[in-house]
Amino acid sequence: MTAPRDSSRDRIRLEGVRQHNLKGICVEIPVGALTVVTGVSGSGKSSLAFDTLYAEGQRRYVESFSAYSRQFLERMDRPDVERVEGMLPAVALERSRPVRGSRSSVATLAELLDPLKLLWARAGELACRRCGRPVRRESPGSVADRLAAEPPGTRLWVGFDLPLGPARTPAEALAELRAAGFTRWQAGPETRLLPADPAEVPAAEALFVLVDRLVVGTTPRARLAEALELAFRAGGGGVRVRQEPPRGPAEERRYAEGLRCGECGTAHREPTPNLYSFNSPIGACPECHGFGRTVGVDWDLVVPDGRRSLATGAIDPFERPAQRALRRRLLAWCEAQGIDTGRPWRDLPEAARRAVLEGGPGWKGVRGFFRAKERKAYKVHVRVLLARYRGYPTCGACGGDRLGPEGRAWRVGGLTLPALLRHSVADARRWAAALTVPAWARAAAEVLVADLRARLEALDEVGLGYLTLDRQARTLSGGEVQRVNLTAAIGTRLVNTLFVLDEPSVGLHARDSGRLVRMLRRLCDQGNTLVVVEHDLGILAAADHVIDLGPGAGERGGHVVAAGPPAALAAAPESLTGRWLAGRERLRRAAAPAPAGGADRGLGVLGARAHNLTGVDLLLAPGELTVLSGVSGSGKSTLAHEVLYLALVRELGRPEGTPGAHAAVRGADRVSDVVWVGQAASGRNARANPATYSDAWSPIREWYAALPEARAEGLRAASFSFNVPGGRCEVCAGAGVEQVAMQFLSDVEVTCAECQGTRFRPEVRAVRWQ
Q1: Can you give the pTM of this predicted structure?
Q2: Residue (of 575, 571, 570, 573) closest to 560 by Cα position
Q3: Do the Cβ atoms of 109 and 484 come closer than 8 Å?
Q4: What is the tens place of the pLDDT at every residue in 484-504?
């Protein structure tokens, strides 16, 4: 008799889910398939996928760890669910927030840097950072093998250099050599006995002391190795060999033990992964500390308006009352030098502008002014002044490579690591495909190269081949960040794992939906289960199973409206999502009024050239709604934020950064303000909520402070704020949760045991109204 099949292994079953607004629902999620959780905003999708499913998976995963980890589980909030069957280890890929770190790049986001650092440490070839010659790890045996391979009959003079100078006089050198048993020295092609008179020693920095004379093919290799070993020992790790082949000119070669250049004697550090990390003090450039840029002066802020002349205030810091004397000195000096002070700054000759900024006879220059201020940076008002004109020019020591000189000296496949990171993903993929690892490093590097090729292939296949590996992550669009994170998840090669994703299509063009589906399918093909919170109709149609929550938002949500394959969802009349999926509902465009500005398009930028933009003009008309569209990575965010927004706020006199390259700004005088609404979280800290962000909390606090119970306790309006001491719970600092460090795991948030998540002291919680 055949044993009954355990169906619990084919699906994850959740019963009685009441997390947040979910109404005790029961759902089944097929294992090894792509499940999409959809519904109107606020219907409970994230409550089911993240706050229940992923939270329970994380809790069970941590439960398998040590007693140290398990002691915090009792404080972790358990999901409000009656029963969970068939749970898998869970990984969450939540919607990416804008990356703000200056060190984060495409290579770090895609987790490419770790295999690259290991590859350079295991298979790198060293070029001397001083003379550029190849450096090999030498020993008496390796040098003997190389010399023994020379043409038979080649004559060899093996010796070492004995340094001469104030620390070792010729008389001391001769006495030292005779005591060690050396009797000959080499001068050009001739071999001579050591002179008896120290005055006969030539005036040189070193003396080439001869250890042995040999002939390749005639002298035994053992004698050659013995001579080299003695020369290495007596020469302090350096050997000098004069070779005279049967045919051809004689030559001299120098060898050094370990990682030391035989020609110039420069010692190099042993290669370790941290030597190629700009996040480590071992590998980071000592000048810029691994950022690639240093703190300096932004000359665009010093001269914010090139239309002004020196007489009308082109040099902004000299227009401040405290610097008026410097302004008068500058104008007097310019008149003496023949520099036109009434001509617009941008129309002055380059030599004149450079003289004003760099200085000349009788004038220390604007740069000299800032250098003098930096020496007084201990004063608060001076630091405020310097911050107003601060910029971040490329580091002069590393040229933006971010690594120190030792890390930049190693090469794999003919490239240094910074040189490879400047390549695009597509070019790096071709480089990796053609890479041939040296035989001596093949065993250690084959796995690394295979992993590198797989990750680059995944990045290229999702349409990111144009991105350079050193591109800062904070300059990427939302769609680009989503795809980079997904390729990193694919690169983990996890199996039998539950992946929970939060709207991965956000920021993606419709053309990229197919690529996204292929990536999700690839994760499923590896033996994983995917649960995706999603609205995109293309992803809904490609799913194996769909759970539609609703029918409304908030209290009107939390029910399973429909569940099953996409075809069943489309046929369900009660499912709003199904009606859109089946095409029974369509977006209808409302009639729009004629734009107030007519055809007058006088606001915008000309010749935008930041990142991949190629001289784009963007001119807007007042009263119109303008949409920037295009495939992910086409330059929409670059044009809107890095060029248009930053250029306009700079024209309005409140710069927030250096705008992307552009030719001109038009119509800045037509607007009184410019507001950027991006994807960043609202509020300045994690405690912010809609009430505080919209400033609705202020009248609420004042109302409660005026209640009789509050006045009896001496509570003020500030006591009802969880952002300042006084009324907030000081155990959690008004956050309602505590962060618990889990060592090698992600930090865990647990509800504050003192205030039970309410954020306030008991005296404040006791004040009630109605």
Answers
A1: 0.71
A2: 575
A3: yes
A4: 887 887 777 788 899 998 888
